[in-house]
Amino acid sequence: QQQVKQSPQSLIVQKGGISIINCAYENTAFDYFPWYQQFPGKGPALLIAIRPDVSEKKEGRFTISFNKSAKQFSLHIMDSQPGDSATYFCAVGGGSNYKLTFGKGTLLTVNP
Amino acid sequence: ETGVTQSPTHLIKTRGQQVTLRCSSQSGHNTVSWYQQALGQGPQFIFQYYREEENGRGNFPPRFSGLQFPNYSSELNVNALELDDSALYLCASGGGASGRPNEQFFGPGTRLTVL
Hints:
Chain A is mainly beta. Chain A contains no helices and eleven strands. By secondary structure, chain B is mainly beta. At the A-B interface, β5, β9 and β10 of A face β4, β5, β9 and β10 of B.
């Protein structure tokens, strides 16, 4: 059973546009929802994270929107830049061992 | 502040061999987790260590084992390597002084190839 479903699998956006990536989860016990950015040959880098007590969190050009009732959260990248081209992973966490369960990733390409 | 470091960067082994991967946690962190990332997939949780004890394990066989040392560095050992073990192995640290145990920071990974 896939606990985290991420979409789309790939996304192409023009420079200056808005990139939107979505995630849906099953288990309501999850209480930590991060997004990671990964460049080829590198480890994932924590981009932004949210907890279920808020519906939105913004850090610079990156915003997480969280819908607890729908068990969905999304990443919005405003004013997308070619340097944002990378693979983005959503993850869910919770419980005593702080394990993260990841989505399958979205390959974002921002064209100049 | 030094981030998470891993060694070696790349490793090539043959089927049936054993391998040890190493990780140094970010300063101030007291948990270390290991993940396996197959090509084109998201990282999959192998296990986590807290205060030198295993604190949760994913769906991996016992031939995957680990250690955490008093200085919070860690090792991942894999015995009887199989072709499907070829992947990027990621170490992540968190908790401790940050006060946010869920917040995990990844190292650059070790690329393991099994022939």
